[in-house]
Amino acid sequence: MRTLIGPDGGLREVYAAPRTPWLRVNMVATVDGAASGEDGLTGSINNEADQRVFALLRDIADVVVVGAGTARSEGYPPLAKPTVVVSRSAEVPEKMRGADTGRVLLATVSVAPGLEEARDLLGADNVLVLGSHRVDLAAMKQQLVDRGFVDQLCEGGPHLLRDLLDQGVADEVACTYVPRIVSGLHRRITDGPPVDVPLTLHSLVEEDGTLMGRWFTR
Predict the structure, then answer these.
(1) Which domains are assigned to the chain?
(2) pLDDT tens across 43-96, in order?
(3) Most buried residue, 19, 58, 68, 159, by CB count within 10 Å?
């Protein structure tokens, strides 16, 4: 285990992707496994160390991927990096509807009720139809690679992380464990039907009791 030293403790080196394409999922949790606090948001459990990792991973990524539910609940605006919203309904989150063309993409399915509206809002080229009823996340990853987005960062939420693991698409799970216990019936960092994915610990960094780990899926 490594302890942070200096302004960023060498985090850029610690979190460098070992190869490309690379899809990393970044999450935060309490010691007892909660992925959010009482308000249902990650901001009520994260801390300064986690915020530095969060900002760094956005900085080094080519593209950010996020589930539509997380984008809505966390109030995602258009980001500095191109952002892919994953939604089976093809509903574009309200705050992202005014983004410049090409700044927001949507990964969805052919039966999505909001498909035509999404194409009108974002442009047809920015709506990726990847399957009929389930979003083909491997196809999404490849289409992003084809657009030049080889360092891919997913920011959840728990349903999307579960599906990425289930479909064998995530290369890495990065998770910050903050030194807090909140109890209650909070969601974990994955949510949905059971999956069983073995992980290999790549690195573990500590700062004032906060643990920042990287686990690889293969």
Answers:
(1) 21-184+195-208 (3.40.430.10)
(2) 999 999 999 999 999 999 999 999 999 999 999 999 999 999 999 999 999 999
(3) 68
